[in-house]
């Protein structure tokens, strides 16, 4: 059963925290809506929506909690079905229905990615190897088997990929991105992106993600995180090795070109072993 707190109760709770000298963010990094409201303007309503969504996510994923503290809810005569589809509705505010993504440039599409890749990322957030406070907090107390169930669910979803994103970069920049993705740069020991992510850029089972349907800001942010070590993967960390050899201009070009690519109608990841990787990679074990 998924417990959804009433919006009014959420706001009342935050007001009490504010009256007691609460901070703009809690110790776990979640927004204090009452403090945000004091800033005024349209942003306040947006923060209220975010705070409510985060509470929904927290409670939606924590399905093992006891209902003893909520006797009126526990006595509801017709509880909703406890299915994985119902549980992962908690993920939709950021990642969209069925994991198809949203208009937010920094929240990625989850649907159709290899289950092994999704599981590795969930574990990385849980263990703090990937750092984003809301995700770290939400996953901290979930079991690894449950994380695998979540990964398996999103891997089987295949909503249509979004239309290519128009960019305002020059044709020269796009050509640079295309060259790095298709051919790499042997002089700088940079392999082509497609040598790992596949000829069609749809990834490979079990742990290599596709690169289509992502927004340029998300791609550049992740490449930057690998370059500076704020995002890491299992050793040998092949993405960190490659990203460290890229310049800022390379990152901009690769992100712009990938985001401009039309998506094939059918874009599942290639089966394991379809092609050989250029070097050892911890996320794709032998």
UniProtKB/TrEMBL annotation:
Keywords: Heme, Iron, Metal-binding. The keyword Transport does not apply. Residues 61-158, 172-262 form the Cytochrome c domain. Residues 27-48 are annotated as: Disordered. InterPro entries: Cyt_c-like_dom, Cyt_c-like_dom_sf, Cytochrome_c_Oxidase_Subunit. GO terms for molecular function: electron transfer activity; heme binding; metal ion binding. The keyword Glycoprotein does not apply. Pfam families: Cytochrom_C (PF00034). PANTHER family: BLL4483 PROTEIN, CBB3-TYPE CYTOCHROME C OXIDASE SUBUNIT FIXP. This is Cytochrome c553. It comes from Bradyrhizobium erythrophlei.
């Amino acid at each position: 059963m998924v417990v959804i707190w009433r919006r009014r109760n959420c706001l009342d709770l935050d007001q009490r925290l504010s009256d007691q000298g609460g901070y703009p963010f809690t110790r776990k990094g979640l927004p204090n809506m009452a403090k945000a409201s004091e800033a005024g303007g349209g942003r306040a309503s947006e923060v209220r929506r975010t705070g409510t969504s985060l509470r929904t996510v927290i409670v939606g994923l924590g399905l093992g909690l006891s209902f003893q503290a909520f006797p009126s809810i526990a006595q509801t005569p017709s509880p909703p079905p406890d299915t994985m589809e119902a549980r992962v509705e908690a993920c939709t505010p950021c990642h969209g229905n069925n994991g198809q993504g949203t208009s937010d440039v920094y929240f990625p599409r989850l649907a159709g990615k290899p289950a092994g890749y999704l599981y590795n990322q969930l574990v990385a957030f849980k263990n703090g190897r990937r750092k984003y406070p809301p995700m770290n907090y939400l996953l901290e107390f979930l079991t690894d088997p449950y994380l695998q169930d979540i990964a398996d669910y999103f891997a089987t979803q295949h909503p249509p990929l979004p239309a290519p994103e128009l960019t305002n970069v020059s044709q020269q920049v796009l050509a640079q991105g295309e060259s790095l993705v298709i051919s790499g740069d042997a002089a700088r020991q940079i392999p082509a992106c497609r040598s790992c992510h596949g000829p069609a850029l749809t990834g490979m089972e079990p742990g290599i993600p596709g690169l289509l349907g992502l927004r340029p800001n998300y791609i550049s942010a992740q490449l930057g995180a690998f370059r500076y070590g704020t995002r890491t993967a299992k050793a040998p960390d092949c993405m960190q090795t490659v990203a460290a050899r890229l310049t800022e201009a390379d990152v901009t070009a690769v992100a712009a070109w990938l985001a401009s690519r039309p998506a094939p109608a059918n874009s599942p990841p290639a089966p394991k072993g379809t092609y050989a990787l250029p070097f050892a990679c911890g996320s794709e074990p032998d």
